[in-house]
């Protein structure tokens, strides 16, 4: 009798493990879900400068020369607009995330504007 119970529990556990393996997302899917998708926007330098003036100069300086945060004057030579969007959106290191402070379109516009700084 005990063998039957143990065998039944074993097969139930195997079935549950199989269901979980087939239904849980893989590493690639999780990484893709965690990577914010930059919305398509048309660059508006004037609007980007306004957002930067209100949200970024306290750490990056009024000429983006760096202060508490790094120098951004030539950041476009190092990072793409998508990379900048991800950093602004989610934050990185000491930089806070701006996803709750700015609209996605504003973040994308600033990322495009910074990406042109080479």
Automatic annotation (TrEMBL):
Supply the PANTHER family for this chain.
CYTOCHROME C-553-LIKE (PTHR37823), MENAQUINOL-CYTOCHROME C REDUCTASE CYTOCHROME B_C SUBUNIT (PTHR37823:SF4)
Residues that, per the record, bind heme c = 56, 59-60, 95
**Keyword hit for Transcription:** no
Keyword Endoplasmic reticulum on this protein? no
Record domain Cytochrome c: where: 43-118
The residues that cross the membrane are: none
Q: For this UniProt entry, what's an example GO CC term? A: membrane
Q: Which InterPro entries match?
A: Cyt_c-like_dom, Cyt_c-like_dom_sf, Cyt_c_BACSU-c550-type, Cyt_C_IC, Cytochrome_c550/c551-like
Query: What protein name applies here?
Result: Cytochrome c
Q: Which UniProt keywords apply?
A: Electron transport, Heme, Iron, Metal-binding, Transport
PROSITE patterns (alphabetical): CYTC
Post-translational modification summary for this protein: Binds 1 heme c group covalently per subunit.
SUPFAM superfamilies tied to this protein: Cytochrome c (SSF46626)
């Amino acid at each position: 009798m005990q063998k039957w119970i143990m065998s039944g529990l074993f097969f139930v556990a195997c079935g549950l493990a199989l269901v979980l393996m087939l239904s849980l997302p893989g590493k690639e899917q999780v990484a893709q879900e965690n990577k914010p998708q930059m919305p398509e926007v048309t660059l508006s330098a004037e609007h980007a400068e306004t957002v930067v003036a209100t949200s970024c100069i306290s750490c990056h300086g009024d000429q983006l020369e760096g202060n508490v945060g790094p120098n951004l004057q030539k950041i476009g030579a190092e990072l793409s607009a998508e990379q900048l969007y991800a950093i602004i959106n989610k934050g990185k290191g000491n930089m806070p995330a701006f996803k709750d402070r700015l609209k996605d379109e504003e973040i994308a516009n600033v990322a495009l504007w910074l990406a042109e700084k080479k």
